[in-house]
UniProtKB/TrEMBL annotation:
GO terms for molecular function: catalytic activity. It holds the Pfam family Exo_endo_phos. It comes from Nocardioides simplex (Arthrobacter simplex). Signal peptide: none annotated. This is Membrane protein.
Amino acid sequence: MPRLRSDLSVVLLSVVIAAFVVLAQVPGVAGTIGAATLPWAGLLLLPLLVLALLRRSWTSLAAPVALGLWLVALAPALPAVLSSGTDEAEGTAVTFASQNVEADSGTSAASARTLADLDSDVIALTEMDASARAKAAEALAPTHPYAYTAGTVGLWSVYPLSNTQGLTLGLSWKRALRADIAAPGGTVRVYVVHAASVRPGQQAGRDSMLDHLASEIDADDSPRLVAMGDFNAATTDPALKGIRRHLSEPRSTGLSFGFTWPARFPLVRIDHIFERGLTVLGTRVAKAGSSDHRAVLATFDD
């Protein structure tokens, strides 16, 4: 009986992990939930592998299969465990930072100052009302003189901006923007997005925004491009497939998945910086202000 229970445990744990993987591939609510919980399914791998090693029976073959499925499904979000931090730049190191500053939290100025103190050259803030925009602008005026805001999002830069435009991405109001940044190595096209929230039975707005953003990027022939902000979607969420088809997300360094929400004890990474045509030097997640989101930062060799 004990041997049978062990065999059943191996099979059951393998099936549960496989179910997480399958769930994360399904568009809609199932995929959103599956993608958000997929990294945590890895907690089941340790007892599974231990049981498989102890049993050494045919049922143990289920363990490496489950491990392989989990690794493949989570590949875009796996951390760069062999990287210890930011590499040395051959040109000019340019740091992009993004944070949802949580409307009505009064944290935009504190977040802006913290990100500026972290040597961020380009700062995107999302979920801002008029008061938050004004306070962030005042805080960043001495260090980031070039700015553009549209709706709930804003962009501040130490480098000149041009071709600025607010974007609705299928909604009736602006929750995104596009701008060109005159970086040292040449123009970088930047998109800043604050995707619609996801609630039980309410994610059509988010999915539509991300689809529209993917279409914008698909039609954009800029060789150097960054898309950043609050996407309200985990890295492997099916809703991001259109964006990931054209852009890559720099991997978090060390052993961390780089979770960003909730800030007090992050469980999922829904804030992202995607890129193409740039050389990644390093990434990090930082607590800034009192927002319920942590900030994401990525440094590129320009």
